[in-house]
Amino acid sequence: MIYAESPALEIVNLRKHYRRIEALRGVDFELGRGECLAFLGPNGAGKTTLIRALAGRTRPTEGTIKVFGHPIDSIGARQALGLVPQDLALYGDLTTRENLMAFGKFHGVPRRELKKRIDWALQWTGLTDRARDLVGGFSGGMKRRVNLACGVLHQPKIILLDEPTVGVDPQSRERIFTMLDQLSDEGASILLTTHHLDEAEQRSDRIVILDQGRVIADGTIDELVLSTVGHSRLVRVRVDRPLTAPVTVPGDGGQRRTVHVGEAGRDLIETRIDDVTVNLGPFLKAVRHGGYVVSDMEVQVPSLHHVFLHLTGNELRD
Ligand SMILES: Nc1ncnc2c1ncn2[C@@H]1O[C@H](COP(=O)(O)OP(=O)(O)OP(=O)(O)O)[C@@H](O)[C@H]1O
Ligand SMILES: [Mg+2]
């Protein structure tokens, strides 16, 4: 039975220790019904550990996971979940179709429906032509597409995808997301991890950022932008010669009547502008009055990329 009011997933204080390493340090979040949630985070943040815990592949040290209101270890919960793992889990000495048959049977797809489901999965992953070929000889991106087909074949109510599009070409990626959209339209709830920030921005309803085993942000892209970098545009102008002194330009509304931008000796001027239609013209005019000619200009809209770097920093960490 599915409780009408409970979310698809409810995670409270999830912790996972591997000896000295604390992979998850008290993670709380919900996945709403029919929602597509993107999970982001630097390498080692704990994304795969979390997905594995949700899929019952690893036992959390502490915390609770509820699936449609049921404990994770109940039979109904297990049946509701489908996993597309980061590490490929396929039989190399079987054909694509045989792999799909094996996964379909494992997930209890009724025999009479299996062929139809397999054809559907083959079509969406663009593998119909390769259905009779051994998977062991496939390219990395093709294996990943088979891996995905195997994970969604039984049309689970909750789909967990761990970096489903790594190494997948742009055309196949598009098809994969169209397939996920179709599953989502049919009511599936989707949780995916990715390092493709543009993908997360365009395809998900909500974003959770994990860092060092903790949730450090949770919201829609607009909410995350507003609470971190703000909505102002970054304007970057290159001029024809190094500045002799900072340039005085009109302030961006409020109390600031003028501000000084740029640095003597550099030919680059950067500033933030709230309303481009009102303030970009006066800014460029001030640059010209300073005696400079603009040779190049870029206006950057704040994106998930900026939010991510703002929250997790620029340093590499593993
Ligand atoms: N089986 C394991 N044994 C010991 N440590 C582990 C194990 N699995 C994960 N870890 C550790 O837990 C931390 C989180 O790893 P995890 O794979 O969850 O990160 P991730 O966010 O998925 O990273 P990536 O973006 O690289 O896939 C890392 O420090 C990792 O070394
Ligand atoms: Mg991972």
Task: Map the helices and strands.
Layout: E1 9-18, E2 21-31, E3 36-40, H1 47-54, E4 62-67, E5 70-71, H2 75-80, E6 81-84, H3 96-106, H4 111-124, H5 140-152, E7 158-162, H6 170-185, E8 189-193, H7 197-203, E9 206-211, E10 214-219, H8 221-227, E11 233-239, E12 247-250, E13 258-261, E14 268-273, H9 276-289, E15 294-300, H10 304-312
Parallel strand pairs: 3-8, 3-9, 6-7, 7-8
Antiparallel strand pairs: 1-2, 1-4, 4-5, 9-10, 11-14, 11-15, 12-13
Helix pairs in contact: 3-4, 3-5, 4-5
The chain binds adenosine-5'-triphosphate and magnesium ion.
Account of the protein in words:
The protein is α/β, with parallel strands linked by helices and 318 residues long. It folds into two domains: 9-227, Rossmann fold, CATH 3.40.50; 233-301, no CATH class. It has ten helices and 15 strands. The protein has helices at residues 47-54, 75-80, 96-106, 111-124, 140-152, 170-185, 197-203, 221-227, 276-289, 304-312, and strands at residues 9-18, 21-31, 36-40, 62-67, 70-71, 81-84, 158-162, 189-193, 206-211, 214-219, 233-239, 247-250, 258-261, 268-273, 294-300. Helix 3 packs across helix 4 (111-124), helix 3 (96-106) packs parallel to helix 5 and helix 4 (111-124) packs antiparallel against helix 5 (140-152). The protein starts with 8 loop residues before the first strand and ends in a 6-residue tail after the last helix. Bound molecules: adenosine-5'-triphosphate and magnesium ion.
